[in-house]
Specification:
The chain is mostly helical. Helices cover 60% and strands 6% of the residues. Helix 4 packs parallel to helix 8, helix 8 (141-154) packs antiparallel against helix 9 (160-176) and helix 14 packs across helix 16.
Length: 494
């Protein structure tokens, strides 16, 4: 626990920025815009009735709305200070993963396995960094583990209230991330198969209560209709799944084997299948979760982060059983020892830089830079080498300016025709050029529209951002060149 807390504290302090699109733009940006009295992303009903439900739960983002409102009430407005507090709270929350992972393992096996699982959950290279992100796939894990822990304890103490409480906990996880219902449903199915009808009913009732209160209640309060967000979420995903990353069915298996570092990851999978009957309470939720996401066309690696702690728990229990029963020879022991040494070397090699990485540094710092200016009218993002916009995190700008974009698919002549000779009040205060490709030519071209552009500064991505881009260009973390429009902002602010 101490080591896990130490590395999570390091991440909370040093791992600034955000990890993915969703943890910033579906949580932080939404909540802060509401605090500022602006529904910038149109999640709420509009006066003219044009806004429609977006299909996202208000529960988790609503907690951030309340937190940001409180922080501003006590005089904390700086976005970096707000996010430090958010990261510290999430780091503390994630400690429950270590705690309940240890307790579940100890309950199902022995102290040696529990200690190993505890170390893995505390120091697995990805966990400290991801624990301080606003990623619903990870934030829901403590509730899943706690719910399973209550269910395990309820086998010996079958009080209705205890089963009901487990359902409420699972329901809270659902309100954070809808897909956790796959895990909850698998647990309920196991209870039914094992003839624990009262337990299955109570768990289901607890889940239903939280869904009615938080999904139905919040939606009715905001939209005057219950469950509209949930209905829209289901409808959208049924009809738009193939619009996103469509990968082979085995994508998640390869991802899990790779991220858990072979050959230890292979040991964990061997243990997972060995324990399928004895620890069905862990096996079936993982299996159903992976099968569903493997079948579903939209595949993103973070989707299966939720089941990694469960996989580690059952995998270690099963592998230790295999090792103690079948792999007792000297050569086997030596190979296993070497495998663990390799695992920990690789793990710590990744752990330290990932724990303190400043993710999306260029995008965050460019907004922080613009925030020095009181009124920039609006700004323009020029990224003509790309077709997909990398959204600017305006939470750090502390203003909700409308901004323009000029992308690869846009016609510059049409852009110039529309924007040339605009009065200064309608011109962007800054133009942000993404990526260095042909930067001089692009600036000259832009000056035909805004002749008073003057170079201000370059904001560079951090080391880990550059490394991730080199490893996989889809992680597009560019240099951002800031040019100030002197027609709008005559003087530079140092």
């Amino acid at each position: 626990m101490i080591m896990g807390g130490f590395f999570r504290l390091l991440s909370a302090i040093f791992s600034l920025g955000y990890g993915w699109h969703d943890d910033q733009f579906l949580i932080i940006e939404i909540a802060q815009s509401w605090v500022d009295g602006i529904d910038y992303y149109s999640w709420l009903p509009s006066a003219d009735g044009t806004n429609q439900p977006e299909g996202f739960s208000f529960f988790y983002v609503g907690l951030h709305y309340l937190l940001f409102s409180f922080l501003e009430f006590i005089g904390i407005f700086n976005p970096q200070t707000k996010m430090l507090i958010v990261r510290l709270l999430h780091a503390l929350w994630s400690m429950l993963i270590i705690y309940y992972g240890f307790k579940i393992t100890l309950y199902l096996s022995n102290i040696d396995n529990a200690k190993l699982v505890g170390w893995l959950l505390a120091l697995f290279w990805l966990f400290p960094m991801i624990s301080v992100r606003n990623l619903v796939e990870y934030v829901s894990i403590p509730l899943i583990l706690y719910g399973i822990w209550i269910v395990l304890k309820s086998y010996n103490d079958s009080k209705f209230s205890l089963w009901l409480f487990a359902g409420i906990i699972f329901g809270l996880a659902f309100n954070i991330r809808y897909q956790t219902m796959l895990i909850t449903g698998a647990v309920g199915l196991i209870l039914l198969v094992q003839n624990k009808w009262k337990g299955a009913f109570a768990v289901g009732l607890g889940v239903l209560i939280t869904i009615v209160v938080f999904q139905g209640g919040l939606d009715y309060f905001i939209w005057k209709k219950p469950f509209v967000q949930l209905i829209e979420y289901v409808d959208y995903n049924m009809h738009n799944a193939a619009r996103y990353v469509v990968s082979p069915w085995y994508t998640y298996l390869l991802f899990l084997v790779g991220i858990l570092i072979p050959p230890i990851s292979l040991f964990i999978f061997a243990g997972f299948f060995q324990q399928w009957r004895k620890n069905l309470i862990l096996f079936l939720p993982i299996l159903i979760f992976v099968i569903f996401h493997s079948y579903y066309p939209n595949k993103q690696e973070r989707f299966v982060i939720t089941i990694i702690p469960l996989l580690i728990i059952i995998g270690i229990i099963g592998w230790q059983y295999i090792q103690n029963k079948y792999l007792t020879g000297r050569i086997h022991r030596r190979m296993i020892t070497v495998s663990w040494i390799v695992f920990w070397i690789v793990n710590f090699t990744l752990l330290v830089p990932v724990t303190v990485m400043y993710s999306k540094q260029a995008r965050v710092e460019s907004m922080c830079y613009l925030a020095k200016y009181d009124d920039i009218n609006n700004f323009l993002i020029e990224d003509i080498n790309q077709t997909v916009l990398r959204f600017p995190p305006q939470f750090y700008l502390q203003s909700w300016y409308n901004y323009q974009t000029l992308m690869k698919d846009d016609d510059f002549s049409e852009f110039a025709k529309k924007n040339s000779f605009l009065p200064a009040d309608d011109q962007p205060g800054f133009v942000l050029f993404y990526q260095p490709n042909n930067i001089e030519q692009r600036v000259r071209q832009m000056k035909t529209v805004y002749p008073e552009l003057e170079f201000e500064t370059i904001v560079e991505p951090g080391f880990m951002d550059r490394l991730l881009t080199w490893l996989n260009p889809i992680n597009d973390n560019q240099n951002i060149y800031l040019y100030r429009n002197k027609s709008v902002l005559p003087n530079r602010i140092e």
